TrEMBL record:
Xref: InterPro entries: HIPP46
Superkingdom of origin: Eukaryota
Name of the protein in its database record: HMA domain-containing protein
Organism: Centaurea solstitialis
Length: 114
């Protein structure tokens, strides 16, 4: 019986990616797992993949990346850090529109008295 942890977790995996093709393949493998909500490249050299979601099997992720891409190292597994919501005041942009400004193209039409 497999019991998944229902909390959001973040898994960081270091992958050796020499080409752009391998990096796309690694990201595709990471996103294909059950429970993954997002995956992105992190680190100074963009050689790490951060995967967030619920109930992700880190061993399965590492094994699939090793089979598909190459050398893979599990860096960290932990809960997602909550970001504090700061109250930001957004300035409303006011744009004045003149509804009586018309553009007329072509020759003017004059009506002379009858």
């Amino acid at each position: 019986m497999i019991v998944f942890n229902e909390l959001q977790q973040k898994i960081v995996v270091k992958v050796t990616m020499n080409t752009e093709k391998k990096s796309r393949k690694a990201l595709k493998i990471a996103v294909s797992l059950f429970g993954v909500e997002s995956a992105s490249f992190v680190g100074s050299d963009k050689d790490q993949i951060a995967v967030t979601g619920e109930g992700i099997d880190s061993v399965e992720l590492t094994t699939l990346l090793r089979k598909g891409v190459g050398y893979t190292e599990l860096v960290s597994v932990g809960p997602v850090e909550e970001k504090k919501a700061e109250a930001k005041e957004s300035k409303a942009t006011v744009v004045e529109v003149n509804p009586y400004q018309y553009y007329y193209y072509g020759t003017p039409y004059y009506v002379y008295g009858m």
